[in-house]
Write a structure and sequence with these properties.
18 strands, alpha+beta, 4 helices, 2 domains, 4-stranded antiparallel beta sheet, globular, Rieske Iron-sulfur Protein, disordered N terminus
């Protein structure tokens, strides 16, 4: 654990911190690539660090993930359609099953064999509202688990989801999430004020930063939920604000009432998609817990998205800043930045460690966005 009593120039990130903006990712992790309800019999294309992938459900409802290309002419299979249990290419009608084998060609002659072209298939699983994909070594998928989101299914939490689509390297997003001093940006949208960084803990796969802050919300009475909609009811009170970069994702708790998770999916050097998930706890309402389960489930579903305006507002403001950071870096990658928050060097160290495990060297940057 690092004390935050003093800060001096020697503790600034080393000059090679600029390379972080070009580093790849460790693919041996589970990445959330879609909401469960987004994956239907109609195929959709996603991207995980330069890998174009198509998702689809077969007629039994099972989700499959394949390379998003037809080996015939290299067009996108996500432009095709599902026929039975196979994915049919829109161009010539070649069909591929969930394991990536070609199973049909419409114009195949009687004396011809099916082409021996195997597409890569990816491990996928449905868990806590999301489709998770493992883009790394298949054997590792059996021992590594996705980030747990038990609040998604628990009746005592109200959930809101906002999508982050940012034209910036994923390091900018993680630095933004770990730096609670940027609440200055959010004005009426922010849930906290006056953060003070207390301590940092680091390991090979996570960084935990512990802040003391003032929370605008206290969910202790049934009417407290109205604070989400009526700013005049909010009153500042002290709460611990803990943020964690649990590679490759992020988790935060503000007191006992709020938990926010960010499921990060880096697409390439200047594009990142993520799902920001806000959980509001109803654990303080003991009488609510005694009500019938069907009613509580109905209430949870009815209140889904209650914090949508606030969460979308936060995302919009953050994305603008991160894209400006990315463009500034592209315009002048050697320009020095001055950093005072010690969580940022910790984030960059973790990115380097995991990128090294993924054995992906820095790549050449595109000239612009």
């Amino acid at each position: 654990m690092q004390s935050i009593d003093t800060f001096c120039a020697s503790e600034m990130p080393s000059p090679n911190f600029r390379e972080v903006r070009r580093l790849g990712v460790n693919l041996n992790h589970w990445y959330a690539v879609a909401r469960i309800n987004e994956v239907t019999a109609q195929p959709i294309g996603v991207e995980v660090w330069h890998q174009a992938i198509v998702l689809f459900r077969d007629q039994s409802g099972k989700v499959h993930a394949l390379e998003d290309r037809c080996p015939h002419r290299q067009v996108k299979l996500s432009h095709g359609k599902v026929v039975g249990d196979a994915l049919e290419c829109a161009y010539h009608g070649w069909c591929f099953d969930g394991s990536g084998d070609c199973v049909a060609v419409p114009y195949l002659a009687n004396n011809q064999k099916l082409p021996n072209c195997q597409l890569r298939s990816y491990p996928v699983r449905e868990q806590h509202g999301f489709v998770w994909l493992f883009p790394g070594e298949v054997q590792q998928a059996k021992v590594i688990q996705p980030l747990g989101l038990p609040e998604w299914d628990e009746l005592n939490y109200i959930t809101t989801v906002s999508i982050i689509e940012c034209k910036a390297h994923y390091s900018f997003l993680l630095e933004n999430l770990m730096d609670m001093y940027h609440g200055h940006l959010h004005q009426d949208y922010q849930a906290w004020a006056n953060p003070v960084l207390q301590n940092i803990e680091e390991s090979d796969d996570r960084v935990d930063a512990f802040y003391q802050a003032q929370s605008y919300y206290k969910i202790d009475k049934i009417w407290s939920i109205s604070q989400l909609f009526i700013p005049a009811l909010r009153q500042l009170h002290p709460e611990p604000l803990n943020v964690s970069y649990v590679y490759p994702h992020w988790v935060s708790t503000l007191g006992k009432d709020f938990k926010i998770c960010c499921l990060v999916c880096p697409q390439h050097e200047t594009a990142t998609k993520a799902y920001l998930i806000h959980f509001t706890s109803l654990n303080a309402f003991h009488r609510l817990h005694k009500l019938p389960v069907l009613f509580r489930r109905w209430l949870k579903n009815r209140l889904f998205g209650s914090a949508q305006r606030i969460l979308d507002g936060l995302v919009q403001q953050d994305v603008q800043m991160m894209e400006e950071e990315q463009q500034a870096y592209l315009n002048n990658p050697e320009r020095r930045s001055y950093e005072l928050n010690r969580t940022i060097p910790s984030v960059q160290r973790l990115i380097r460690k995991q990128a090294a495990l993924g054995m992906q060297p820095p790549v050449s940057m595109p000239p612009d966005l």
